[in-house]
Amino acid sequence: MMYAAAVPLILFLCSAFIFRHYKTAPLPDKMKGAWIATVENIDYPSRPGLSVKEQKQEFVQLLNALKEAGINTIFMQVRPTADTFWPSNLDPWSAYLTGTQGKKPGMFYDPLKFMVAQAHKRGMAFHAWLNPYRVTNIMKVELAEKSFARKHPEIIVEYGGKLYYNPARRESIEHNLKIVKELLNNYHIDGIHFDDYFYPYPVKKNGNDVDFPDAADYAGYKSEGGTMSKEDWRRENVNLLVHQIHDTVKTERPDAAFGISPFGIWRNKSEDVPDGSDTSAFQCYEKLYADTRYWIQNGWVDYIMPQLYWHYGHKTAPYGLLLDWWDKEVQKYGKGKVKLYIGLALYKHSDGDKNWKKGELEKQLEDIEARTTVSGGVFFSARYFLKNKKSEQETIKGFYK
Prior knowledge:
- This protein is of the alpha/beta class.
- It is 39% helix and 12% strand.
- The chain contains 15 helices and 13 strands.
- A hairpin with a 2-residue loop joins strand 4 and strand 5 (162-165).
- Helix 2 (52-68) packs parallel to helix 4 and helix 6 packs parallel to helix 8 (230-252).
């Protein structure tokens, strides 16, 4: 009886050993990546409530289109809001899978396990894309009983008709750390990825920004002797999240990557910031409280992927100027340890943005290819490869093979 009881334990330990020694795909020197967005069903699945068979078919079709274009890495949005694309012990099933948060997509179906296996089968690295603070988005969702946000309303704030985890609350960070640990310990993912959403983009009222509702938290910080301005305090809240996510990734899976794709402008030189870019547009430092350059300086990211969604002739944020700025900054502060990838607006090319003249995308790609210090690009978003209306597969396949 003792021997029989020991067998399951031995099998578990062996499987854990094998998992721990899973060889994570290294970050490529020439990234050719694609974001697969699930929030509001942008890329996948085409709509909530598909059968398991239909979900699998759609994902395989999408990956095959990406493979045809030479994509080597996918950034799969597996936690679009406060719900998941895997059977999590911490958050409910995503409403973007089934239409109802908490509802299983299939009795014995693990979408994430399937997606990772399909990506690796095609030689693609798989990075799990998470949103750390967003609880609800446009789609009206009733939070499931299992929802951490529903269980802890004291750390949730409403802003612009949407719900968010309060970045000032320690519980918000701790929940994110647990989510990352769960992913790294149960799935053969190659990295953890955040996009540009930290504090939310400002909501306007009568032409002015509506302040994020964290006055009570800031007052509490000040009453305990805090001396930072509210803006610096908010940036420090985000810094703490980024730093601890990085450390968690490196503790749980040292070879897994952690990277962020921020809004493409750190700060404007025009606002008396000598180190800023020569631009005069929205700044993630000021508006989203994301000090992206500080993360590079401290080595808290393995890669940075600024979203340079503008064209060369843009009046306030030209693509070429920003590419130069990021290239120099990462070379200076990344110390050879932080890779620079560029987020590219494939959607503007494909949807026929009036400012995107013929050859704009090709020119941007040529500029990346010509720079040994820029390690490739990532395209938003995957559905345009599948549609292929403007020969996106063929165009992108031809660059930095």
